[in-house]
Design brief:
This protein is of the alpha/beta class. It is built from twelve helices and twelve strands. It has helices at about 40, 50-55, 80-95, 115-120, 165-180, 195-205, 205-225, 250-260, 275-285, 290-295, 325-345, 375-385, and strands at about 20-30, 95-105, 110, 130-135, 185, 190-195, 230-235, 265, 300-305, 350-355, 360, 365. Strands 1, 2, 3, 4, 5, 6, 7, 8, 9 and 10 form a ten-stranded mixed sheet that branches. It is globular, with a radius of gyration of 20 Å. The relative contact order is 0.19.
Length: about 400
């Protein structure tokens, strides 16, 4: 076993203290907890959420490093004491924002316990900013490690939300989050990111109804004392994808203008990753400037690797990204930082996304492991450390 390195940054920082004006947002996959609705999906009967996929993983070919074992153990995301430790470690490394994946299916929340019972009840939670990405994708059998082939893409829950449900249920729920003192805001506008714009538009009843729904949300934000809403596209496709009136396949810039997007980013570097980490990074970053020129505000994002094999049966192998490491990840952070310095407008924060804090079953994690020790957190600290919690 490799010698485990210790975290190089000691001491933590109070809200508002910073040396460099960067907001570094790590994406949270809130699945490592006994969410009751796992039973509806027929998975994770051990009661540990997706940790079950992590510790059931096996190496599938020579040199394949599985399972990846968390150095802190299989901690629950809804445990406020465990989350408090994660907050301290993140802040020490220079991460000052958590973006939580947020889900709503069939009239009920899903995986929300990690945010409500874990993060928001952590005794130090107000040191860390947070905001929501509405991860409104349909639920297939991706997380079931016993399934492959066509059955893997069988839809179990659809993510459509009607207009009344959006305005009467989701908006009030979001406003309560927005009112939290540590909810992340840009120019006094709470940030809400969305994953699948097209699913949202079709769910509420089409482009006109979607535009009305977003205006309702913006007005609700103003009534709550904010200056409006900062609406962000976080599509894995790199651009918002949704119909417009009489146009099912409009250009991304037309979509952004019609629905009033304030900024763009991506959840992950776009596929493929087959040629290795350095090429994956080069291809992904080459798209940032064209998107910035197209949309005005584009926030860069860094992926740390890829290996989705823990979600597939032992006899089925999916491609991995070769060449990923804390050292290569650190290069990516430095490139993203440099790009942000040169390309983000002065009236916007230098916001940089990292995928992810804890996507263990996708091979994208910053939390320490027996494989990498504190390598990814140390790498983050070398680039962004010692700025603590940035101002709004």
């Amino acid at each position: 076993m490799k010698k485990i390195k210790t975290l190089i940054i000691s001491g933590f920082f109070a809200v508002g203290a910073f040396a460099n004006n960067y907001d570094v947002a790590a994406i949270i996959w809130p699945a490592y907890q006994p969410e009751p609705r796992w039973k509806e999906l027929g998975i994770f009967n051990h009661g540990n959420g997706e940790w079950q996929n992590v510790y059931e993983a096996k190496p599938k070919f020579e040199g394949h490093q599985q399972p990846i074992v968390p150095l802190w153990g299989y901690e629950r995301d809804d445990d406020p004491i465990a989350v408090a430790r994660k907050i301290d470690a993140a802040l020490a490394s220079g991460i000052n924002v958590f973006m939580y994946d947020w889900y709503w299916y069939c009239g009920r929340p899903f995986l929300e316990n990690a945010l409500n019972n874990g993060f928001l009840k952590a005794p130090n939670n107000e040191r860390m900013k947070f905001f929501l990405m509405w991860a409104n994708h349909h639920v297939e059998r991706l997380w079931d490690n016993k399934v492959y082939g066509k059955k893997k893409f069988e839809v179990i829950w659809k993510a459509y939300v009607g207009y009344d449900e959006f305005t009467k249920v989701l908006v009030p729920r979001w406003i309560e989050y927005f009112k939290k003192p540590n909810y992340y805001k840009i120019n006094n506008k709470p940030v809400l990111a969305i994953f699948e714009m097209g699913i949202f538009v079709r769910g509420v009843g089409g482009p006109e109804k979607a535009k009305q729904a977003l205006e309702y949300l913006r007005e609700a934000c103003k009534k709550a004392g904010f200056d409006g809403l900062h609406f962000m596209s976080m599509s894995y496709k790199g651009e918002p994808d949704a119909p417009l009136p009489n146009n099912d396949k409009p250009d991304g810039a037309e979509i952004a203008k019609y629905y009033g997007f304030d900024s763009m980013s991506m959840y992950n570097w776009p596929f493929p990753w087959l040629e290795g980490y350095a090429k994956w990074r080069s291809d992904a970053m080459a798209d940032w400037l064209p998107r910035k020129e197209k949309y005005g505000v584009y926030f860069p994002h860094v992926s740390s690797g890829w290996d989705n094999n823990p979600r597939y049966p032992m006899e089925k192998t999916t491609a991995i990204c070769k060449g990923s490491s804390p050292a290569e990840y650190e290069k990516s952070l430095r490139m993203a930082k440099d790009w942000a310095d040169k390309n983000i407008p002065a009236n916007m924060p230098k916001l940089i996304f990292i995928n992810a804090w804890n996507e263990w079953t996708e091979g994208e994690y910053l939390e320490p492991s027996t494989k990498d020790g504190y390598g990814y957190l140390n790498a983050t600290a070398r680039v962004f450390g010692a700025h603590g919690q940035a101002k709004e």
